[in-house]
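thread: overnight batch results

M.L. [08:02]
morning all. the overnight job finished for the chain we discussed friday. pasting input first so we're all looking at the same thing
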Amino acid sequence: MLDARLRRQIAPATTRLAQPLAHAGIPAWAVTLAGLAVGLAACVAAGLGAWWWALGLWLANRALDGLDGAVARLCGPTDLGGYLDLMADLVVYAGFAAAVAVAVPDARLAVAFLLGAYYVNLGAWLALSSLAERRAITLGDERSLRFATGLAEGAETIVAYALIAVLPAHAGTIAWVFGALVALSAVQRVLLAARLLHRAGTDSGAGRGAAEGRRQTAAAGTSTPTTAPADGAPSTGTSASRVTPPASSASRTPPPV
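M.L. [08:03]
and the structure it wrote out:
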């Protein structure tokens, strides 16, 4: 919900930080992998209950996640880079939640609900992104995949996990609330998909009907090949298949006597 606004606000800073990396020839995927390593370390720290370490590493992971996009924009984004960035995010999101379940047993049911909401929301988002790409539907922003806005996005995830690290005794409550936001985001995206795809299907059906009508009109207006007169006179437009051959002398009506 806040991602687009947050990216605009931090874009100048991330661009300045990314310029030395881009000039040094460090690719965006290398920054992504570094962020993944830091994120996995945050998951380990959370699982061990080292919450302040988990908080610092989590925030560092999110900073690197913003930095790799800035490097990609300077060096030229690639589909592989966008794919790796998404996969790294998903690994860290799920890993941190699982680590909370290890460290805080009372929060396990809430974490299970959160992970289930992640699963449904991810399916709704990726299916809509794929269909929007295929049907050339305008959706989201300039990132590698088409993102449909939802209540729970990257910025909200940063806040939720940071709150868990600061208030681990309330991890269950935080996970329930954030899981509900993720579930509502899934519903929001399903409704958006139903509206966009229904409209696209209606427009596509109307377009196919119009094209078929034009094809039939063109077919009806196209004459069959004509037979050119032997003496070079202009064609009368009479179809060759409709020219009646002259009757033989035996079949002609005799003249009156």
